[in-house]
UniProtKB/TrEMBL annotation:
GO terms for biological process: SCF-dependent proteasomal ubiquitin-dependent protein catabolic process. This is FBXL4 protein. The lineage of its organism: Eukaryota, Metazoa, Chordata, Craniata, Vertebrata. The keyword S-adenosyl-L-methionine does not apply. Keywords: Leucine-rich repeat, Ubl conjugation pathway. Residues 276-331 form the F-box domain. InterPro entries: F-box-like_dom_sf (IPR036047), F-box_dom (IPR001810), FBXL15_LRR (IPR057207), Leu-rich_rpt_Cys-con_subtyp (IPR006553), LRR_dom_sf (IPR032675). GO terms for cellular component: SCF ubiquitin ligase complex.
Length: 620
């Protein structure tokens, strides 16, 4: 045999290894572009490409708008574009609740969970349904203001319009990348290179991270391109199925295989080794410290190596703080069952985004908490649509030491269920953003949970009398440090007076889009005089805020760090200068749509106060 043939074999193997490594890269830009071209030109048989806009918005984690209107809401993503290709701030777009890092720098900021894999950076999401299930060939996202927030695109095997849901719901990552800073706020059509998947889909999920943005990102529409029949590559293409390689690598990288993850949780067969190497010589505590830097899937993999490391990886001390949110698509009842024996000492648990579409049952959740809830201090359940009254009852019974409870966007919980929360008298933080909590239940909670320090009632539209709620807060919640009343529709100067008199430790107050508050009543002046510790104050879209209010803040709230007065017509540049000179710690000042503050004034203030981010939004 000629020596050339072994060399060719070696080169072929090397080329194959290079392809595998290249397929692992996060962006896969060049490789996907090449594959996309090949699949379009060589696919047999030829399919007609279907182009469709989102038919319906099924679910989302937050939005800037109101629950009772269309302005700045996620529902604007359904249908054809309203704004694109125009750029600017438009109410007809979809806008998430936060941007930048400002929310991480205020008194209500929560400590992050350790062991979050570096590949997971999503902060918000929206799920979109399309008319026809297709094999995706492209996804176009029309961004009209401050683009660059989308970090992940996923496709689901479940058809939301099917009468027969599948036994197992699969999610596949079409594209994923770390947050990037885009130069300029101008509109763009974002079309990342997506990977091919082996099932048709009409359910697409966008996940975003707005931490690098200077202002709210605005999305106008999403376009899904696809074919009805799965493309079959011709024999002219490589014998290596690059899609299969990518699927394998993605499962390894993101822990996306449900069976794989559950097998890792439940592994009991261990290799037999005569010794444990140098690990036998290390102190138990040192090995525990080393393993504390591993993610949950890595712990499960390591547990398969030897009995010593299995013992360490299953030690409940490794699961004191556990976040399963990065693995939301793969967590189910079986996962929780496998984790029970390891989580008997758990104190922080994050199940946000998990369990939807039947993945976690009420009984599965209840069984887990009955075993693992006794030491729980912090429980994150944001967007947990499997939660019902039974779940809240179990939480209050099984978690006697609970101090923090996040039910943000759990909009499927019935109103009467919130009465159970009043049984947890140790609560210090309660997040009820976008829930159906009613006035009676909330009054009971405030009456019995007097240790509350942080309370979020943003977009809680079923509360009839916020003045009564504010009065109860002033009487019972003397330790309150942060309060979110975003889009509260009926609080008046009376409620603000009761709140300011009783909760004088307040450091953060969000009164954005509260239309019933008027500066002429003296409510904002009263706030400034009664709450000298204020660090964050949002008076967003209150047209009546005037110079006297700003001057009172400058005189009394010298620790102010963040102020939002978007939309006022009554504030002059002179009062803003007084504020900036007095409040040395001020870092964020939003004067968007303030008619007296033009771009020239903003440039002047930026030059004189370079440490302050002064935001001036615009519309074209």
């Amino acid at each position: 045999m000629s020596p050339v043939f072994p060399m060719l074999t070696v080169l072929s193997m090397f080329y194959y290894m290079c392809l595998r490594r290249r397929a692992r890269t996060a962006t896969r830009g060049e490789m996907n572009s090449r594959r996309a071209i090949e699949s379009n030109t060589r696919a047999l048989p030829i399919n007609v490409e279907i182009v469709q806009y989102a038919k319906e918005v099924l679910d989302f984690s937050s939005h800037y708008g109101s629950e009772n209107s269309m302005s700045y809401t996620m529902w604007n993503l359904a249908g054809i574009p309203n704004v694109y290709p125009s750029s600017g701030d438009f109410t007809q777009t979809a806008v998430f609740r936060t941007y930048g890092t400002w929310w991480d720098r205020c008194p209500s900021a929560r400590l992050p969970f350790k062991r979050t894999p570096p590949t997971f950076c999503s902060q918000d999401y929206v799920e979109l349904a399309f008319e026809e299930p297709v094999y995706p060939t492209a996804v176009h996202i029309l961004e009209t203001y401050h683009p660059g927030a989308v970090v992940r695109i996923l496709a689901c095997s479940s058809n939301p319009y099917s009468q027969n849901p599948p036994a197992e719901v699969r999610w596949e990552i079409l594209w994923s990348e770390a947050p990037t800073k885009v130069n300029g706020p101008q509109a763009r059509q974002f079309t990342p290179c997506i990977k091919q998947i082996n099932f048709p889909t009409n359910l697409i999920r966008l996940e975003v991270n707005s931490s690098l943005l200077d202002y709210y990102t605005e999305l106008d529409a999403v376009v899904l391109h696809g074919v009805k029949e799965r493309p079959v590559l011709s024999l002219k293409t490589s014998m290596i199925d690059m899609n299969d390689i990518d699927d394998e690598e993605d499962e390894e990288k993101y822990g996306c295989g449900m069976d794989t993850l559950n097998k890792q949780f439940s592994i009991v067969t261990l290799r037999e080794w005569p010794t444990n190497g140098y690990f036998d010589k290390l102190p138990y505590e040192l090995i525990q410290l080393i393993l504390s830097h591993l993610t949950v899937p890595d712990l499960c993999r390591l547990a398969q190596t030897c009995k010593l490391l299995y013992q360490h990886c299953c030690d409940p001390l490794q699961y004191i703080h556990l976040s399963l949110q990065p693995y939301w698509a793969r967590i189910n009842d079986t996962s929780l069952e496998y984790l029970q024996s390891r989580c008997t000492l758990i104190q922080w648990l994050n199940l946000s985004w998990t369990g939807n579409r039947g993945a976690i049952s009420v009984s599965g959740f209840s069984r887990f908490l009955k075993v693992c809830g006794s030491e729980l201090i912090r429980l994150e359940l944001s967007c947990g649509h499997f939660l019902n009254e039974t779940c809240l009852e179990v939480i209050t019974e099984m978690c006697p030491n609970l101090q923090e409870l996040n039910l943000s966007s759990c909009d499927k919980i019935p109103p009467q269920a919130f009465n159970h929360i009043a049984k947890v008298g140790s609560l210090k933080r309660l997040i009820l953003y976008r829930t159906k909590v009613e006035q009676t239940a909330l009054l009971s909670i405030l009456n019995f949970c007097s240790e509350l320090q942080h309370l979020s009632l943003g977009s809680c539209v079923m509360i009839e009398d916020y003045d009564l709620i504010a009065s109860m807060m002033g009487a019972k919640c003397k330790k309150l440090r942060s309060l979110d009343l975003w889009r509260c529709k009926n609080i008046t100067e009376s409620g603000i007076a009761e709140l300011a008199s009783g909760c004088q430790l307040l450091e953060e107050l969000d009164l954005g889009w509260c239309p019933t508050l008027q500066s002429s009543t003296g409510c904002f002046t009263n706030l400034a005089r009664k709450l000298p510790n204020l660090q964050k104050l949002f008076l967003t879209a209150n047209r009546s805020v005037c110079d006297s209010d700003i001057e009172e803040l400058a005189a009394n709230c010298t620790h102010l760090r963040q102020l939002d007065i978007l939309g006022t017509r009554m504030v002059s540049p002179a009062s803003l200068r007084k504020l900036l000179e007095s409040c040395k710690d001020l870092s964020l000042l939003d004067v968007s749509f303030c008619s007296q503050i033009d771009n020239r004034v903003v440039l002047e203030l930026n030059a004189n106060f370079p440490n302050v981010f002064i935001k001036k939004s615009f519309t074209q």
